[in-house]
Amino acid sequence: MSLKVDRISKRYGDLLALNETSFEVADGEIFGFVGSNGAGKTTTMRIVLGVLAADSGEVLVDGHPVDLDTRRRIGYMPEERGLYPKMKVGDQLNFLARLHGLSKSDAASAVERWTERLGVEQRLGDMVSALSLGNQQRVQLAAALVHDPKVLVLDEPFSGLDPVAVDVMSAVLKEKAAEGVPVIFSSHQLELVERECDRVGIIAGGRMRALGSITELQARGNPQLEVFAPSAPPGWAAGIPNTVVLQEGKGRTLLELQPGADDQAILRAALATGPVHQLISRRPSLAELFREVVA
Ligand SMILES: Nc1ncnc2c1ncn2[C@@H]1O[C@H](COP(=O)(O)OP(=O)(O)OP(=O)(O)O)[C@@H](O)[C@H]1O
Asked: Where in this chain does the record put each ABC transporter domain (predicted)?
């Protein structure tokens, strides 16, 4: 299935939270949704799910507006989480699977499969409130998955997870994408987004400011050169034409190469300080692109 968000706008009183936001997620694609606090990610995801109505614009799944039936096929992990704290993990997941139309036996096997896959099968009889935050989050992911959704919308699924749980979450998302499910998730962990996503959207002030694969976004920024010259004194690179020093410390200097920069002139300047052990071409990271786009 594919997902298309087409020029949605949403106003809360005087605040225009979304201003003609658009993006598409193809089947099998993992889309990373990033933006500062309050940029409009949660609002967008709620509109995709249909728990919030847009003032204008529309959300299409496989080219059709989202109706009740399609909505039931979306797996959603809300930011505010939303499991019943005083209900047992197993009962809760069963309930959610049944609510989405699974038969009793299909629900039971889905609950077993996903709790095992997510490493919480020992906690089926525990109340959600008795679980650590990370385990609650695993259960929350199981809740988004038990009904075999055809679209996945996850609001900050990686926040607060330990590195092992991050790996589990990322493997599950890849697995669902490989089945053809469009996956959209929001995150402030930009290294993770850079690693996991096929495409990324950067939203600021309710508007999509940049959209594309990491490589496409990187092509918008200037190339960089990292120089490792252990005996170079601080400031050695200041004044090299068309270069900007981005970072400096412990003999490593990261330079931005603006149009007209001469890498050989940089190398000569570095050699003038002593030995040069490494010279590495880099592209801006998603975090750097983000700062540039949001600024
Ligand atoms: N129910 C509401 N009533 C009024 N304003 C709201 C409401 N929900 C969200 N907002 C405002 O809309 C804007 C977008 O909020 P939203 O939660 O979509 O941002 P976000 O990108 O998900 O942020 P974060 O990264 O902090 O979760 C914010 O300015 C927020 O204060």
From this structure: 3-230
